[in-house]
Amino acid sequence: GDLLDGIVNNLIRGNGVAIVGNEGVGKTTLVYGLADRLLKGQDKALQYHQVVSLNASLILSAGGTQLENLLLTLFGDAVHAGNIILFIDEAQLFFGSGVGAFDISQILLPILKNRSVRIIAAFSPDEWQQLRLRNESLAGSFSAVVVQEPNTQQTMRILEDLAASMEQRNDALITFAALRESVRLSGQYMQEQS
To answer: What pTM does this model have?
Structure first.
């Protein structure tokens, strides 16, 4: 709730939003929550807005030499539509300097400064830090929303919400015991990983 409110308030003000968090903390789930909230029409200032997710790796592999034109067209269409919130997952591919990355800062900065398209970008803490060091003006166009690892209680609440919609879609029953066991096992698995 609180994180979503923060994202919504920034979007209403026309700010870009950087969702910063480690892999698996629920950055994408947060954006799905936003999309759901928009569908329900909870925020009058964002009425009729819709979230469009950009798959950075797919765009980069499909773009080839026409990449810049493809991106300009894409952002141009979003500006023209006027009700699009672009979600850039794996944003480091668009702002990074690593292998397979393509820097779209020159295209994106004017869009963010003019507030002509609302943009949400997902970053890991390291990637966000690198962007802030490398391109201060671009990073400054985003308001950072930090997503922490949920504790057991929060995880259970998230799973209960997800289970309810899964039950409806799949005509199945998910027990509380099954949810609790999945949280316990994932905690065990995560400890073995680190």
So the answer is: 0.76
